[in-house]
Design a protein that fits this description.
361 residues, Lambda Exonuclease, Chain A, 2 domains, 6-stranded mixed β-sheet, 3-stranded antiparallel β-sheet
């Protein structure tokens, strides 16, 4: 009998809400439109992987953003097309900044995007589970400049990654690190530590820019749509001398930054404060941490198996809206009958863990 898999993502999902786990990993239902954070994360990961295996930085960026050359079906308005192209710029500029920031770091890539599936062992008896294996995909196995073998885990996030932020405090107890170190050692890699490599997504968005006339003055129109010119006191004049504040009924004419202009501004911001966007830190693991993980994974698989046996997938309503709106809320609150087909806005995929599938080059 083929065993089910426990990945870090699926274990977090079950601990967050068993009903969400049921929709995502038992029924394999996903949103038909991939979320923006997921798209950005996947594209950045692709660029990092290409660079790791020796692809030229610019070529890595070009291939990472290639999917943005085709508009998705949902980008059916001018505003949505604009957002799509801004997203492309974010991916390209983050990768360019990353290669600039860490291009001189000395490390040897042993493995990149290493998928694994290993036995889930009973920590008391050493016997494997008859129902589950541990699985995942390790971003990198590297040899550091100090000749130590390490796991390198890439993440894109929206959180504060400064030195004293809670982001790093949480990682000291994050079980993904323990799972990957356990798996790497089972695969024969005597890894000593984990290097967490984080890219923070931009918080700056496109600016609204005033339109200027031929003399470099801001363009203002009155209620009738006619152009007016303002002196320093805000009074109209036949000839412009300088721009002024809008009066009642008058409006300043503006435009949005183009995607290219936004990208250049983001690159400038990255150059000024690279530590805001990029951080790397070693996250150690003790043998006691790995032992705790093995007990937790063993207990978790028993809970999931019990839920399967009795078809009881309880809801955690505290997770419906925090830290973000659950993607299954629309079908969960109606207790949708999935035997009648996949609800609108969702699709059913062929595999429970698509992140483990080999991507086509």
């Amino acid at each position: 009998m083929e065993k089910s898999l426990i990945t870090h993502s699926s274990s977090v999902c079950y601990k967050t809400c068993p009903r969400k786990y049921f929709y995502q990993y038992i029924m394999t239902i996903r949103k038909s439109v991939e979320s923006t954070p997921l798209r950005i994360g996947k594209a950045v990961h692709l660029g990092l992987d290409l660079w790791a295996v020796g692809t030229d930085p610019q070529e890595s960026i070009t291939r990472a953003v290639a999917s943005y050359e085709v508009l998705p079906e949902w980008a059916n308005t001018e505003e949505l097309v604009y957002q799509w192209m801004i997203e492309r710029e974010k991916v390209a500029r983050l990768l360019s900044g990353y290669f600039w920031r860490w291009g001189e770091v000395e490390e040897k890539i042993i493995q990149s995007e290493r998928a694994f599936e290993v036995d889930l062992l009973n920590p008391d008896t050493g016997r494997p589970s008859s129902n589950y294996n541990l699985a995942g995909r390790i971003d990198k196995i590297i040899e550091t400049a100090g000749k130590r073998l390490a796991i390198k885990e890439h993440k894109t996030c929206s959180e504060d990654i400064s030195n004293d932020s809670d982001y790093w405090l949480r990682l000291r107890i994050d079980q993904q690190i323990s799972q990957y170190m356990t798996a790497a050692r089972r695969l024969g890699y005597d890894v000593e530590t984990v290097i967490y490599d984080v890219i923070r997504k931009p918080t700056i968005g496109p600016l609204t820019i005033p339109l200027l006339d031929e003399d470099g003055l801001k363009i203002v129109v009155d209620e009738s749509g006619e152009r007016v010119y303002l002196d320093a006191k805000g009074k109209s004049e036949p000839k412009p001398r300088q721009s002024g504040d809008s009066k009642k009924g008058w409006s300043l004419q503006t435009r949005k930054q183009t995607p290219q202009e936004y990208g250049e501004r983001l690159t400038d911001d990255i150059a000024i404060r690279p530590e805001y966007y990029y951080a790397q830190r070693e996250i150690p693991r003790l043998n006691s941490d790995l032992e705790e993980f093995e007990y937790e994974a063993w207990d978790l698989q028993k809970q999931i198996q019990e839920a399967k046996k009795h078809n009881r997938w309880y809801r955690n309503t505290a997770a419906c809206l925090k830290p973000y709106r659950c993607e299954y809320l629309d079908i969960c609150h109606n207790s949708a009958d999935l035997s009648q087909g996949v609800p609108s806005g969702y699709v059913q995929i062929n595999v429970a863990h698509p992140e483990l599938e080999e991507e086509e080059d």
